[in-house]
Specification:
The protein is α/β, with parallel strands linked by helices. It is built from 12 helices and 18 strands. Strands 1, 2, 8, 9, 10, 11, 17 and 18 form an 8-stranded mixed beta sheet that branches. A 7-stranded mixed beta sheet has the order 6-5-13-14-15-12-16.
Length: 381
């Protein structure tokens, strides 16, 4: 839908995935190499606006990444001025002189960002599912349910279950998951919503689940909502998966929030690993396909940052006419977002070590120091 680039014409770049990572990559290419715009194609299996599970936090890091691609989608948001970190009976509220972050609905945000891509003249095909990627000596073939495209390079920004990642032989990596629900705001939480307070509670750790629960203020049209969920970041998520749903329901009830189990939805994620391969000849990865923050599992800033890094890699490859992107993980690791994700990876074992008792005592030990050492504008996204 809306493409001016036909499958019979070779593209310079095909971006698989039109979420924040893919859109950021397209916008970065358009800014750095306007001559490549007419030869860049974005493919996505969905038709936007599409539903997307995510708490929708936009931190200052996300905002700075949007500025790098000259995009600031005008969508409704809820400002958050304070974050309450909880571990058992311990509470620490980090307040900010201005806004710590803001929450958006991903359906609106992603569609608005993709609209910026189209307005820059980049061809976008929606509702087209990629089936396979074949890397040749001089080009890459992208096979979809509609036909076949060819390009000099491909950016795989197609999510945690990435076809591109699978096709270039990159392993599945350490995986986590999140369960989420949108709930109407009750009176007490409504007051906190008006004050812009978010909560991150590490209560699951004491129950032997390597993760945390959250409550973020959100909105649907003119109605206040609460984005609630549990993120499981530890590598033993197979066992945790059996416990997480019931734990979330009990945790919400303890906070006066009633949630029907059928309203809870889940999605998986890949934890970013600085040493994991993120590229191959003529192909590199971005967004959830490359991995997300292993500490809090945030996605938007990581998607935007790795999308920009992928675009820069392809532009550099085009400039030197050498499309070997096998060492793309080194570029990501050197980037600002790569450094942040690598730093957060160091926090994850302290919170989510495999032994449940060790988890709790390490979390207690690092509680105050860990919360303060992570700028909240960096910690939430």
């Amino acid at each position: 839908m809306g493409s001016s680039l036909r499958a019979s014409e070779p593209a310079a770049v095909i971006i698989v995935g039109a979420g924040p990572a893919g859109s950021a990559a397209a916008l970065r290419i358009a800014a750095r190499r306007p001559d490549l715009v007419a030869r860049t194609l974005v493919l996505d299996r969905s038709v936007f606006p599409r539903d997307k599970l995510c708490a929708g936090g936009l931190s200052s890091i996300a905002e700075s990444q949007l500025a790098r691609v000259r995009a600031a989608p005008s969508v409704a948001s809820v400002p958050v001025a304070a974050t309450e970190f909880v571990l058992g009976s311990r509470r620490e509220v980090l307040r900010h002189a201005s806004v710590a972050f803001r929450t958006v609905r991903r359906m609106e945000f992603d569609a608005a960002l993709l609209d910026r891509v189209r307005r820059r003249g980049v061809a976008v095909e929606q509702g087209e599912r990629v089936r396979a990627v074949h890397v040749g000596r001089t080009a890459v073939s992208v096979v979809t349910d509609r036909g076949e495209h060819h390009a000099l390079a491909v950016i795989g920004a197609d999510g945690a279950n990435s076809v591109v990642r699978r096709e270039i032989g990159v392993g599945t990596g350490e995986r986590g998951f999140a369960l989420e629900a949108l709930l109407p705001s009750n009176a007490r939480r409504g007051a906190e919503l008006s004050e812009g307070i978010a909560m991150i509670d590490f209560a699951p750790i004491k129950a032997g689940i390597g993760g945390y629960c959250w409550i973020f203020p959100s909105r649907d049209a003119d109605s206040p909502l609460l984005s609630c969920g549990i993120a499981v970041c530890a590598p033993d998520c197979a066992r945790s998966g059996r416990l997480a749903r019931s734990f979330l329901l009990e945790w919400l009830a303890s906070r006066g929030l009633q949630c029907d189990s059928s309203s809870i939805r889940g999605h998986g994620g890949i934890a970013y690993d600085p040493d994991a391969r993120l590229g191959a000849p003529r192909v590199c990865l971005a967004g959830d396909a490359a991995g997300v923050d292993p500490y809090l599992g945030e996605g938007i800033p990581c998607a935007l940052g790795t999308g920009i890094a992928a675009a820069d890699a392809v532009v550099a490859a085009s400039d030197r006419n050498d499309f070997d992107l096998t060492r793309h993980h080194e570029r990501v690791r050197r980037s600002a977002i790569g450094e942040i994700m690598a730093r957060r990876r160091l926090f994850a074992p302290a919170r989510y070590g495999r032994n449940p008792v060790e988890r709790y005592f390490l979390a207690a030990r690092f509680f105050g120091r860990g919360a303060r050492s992570l700028d909240t504008t960096e910690a939430i996204g």
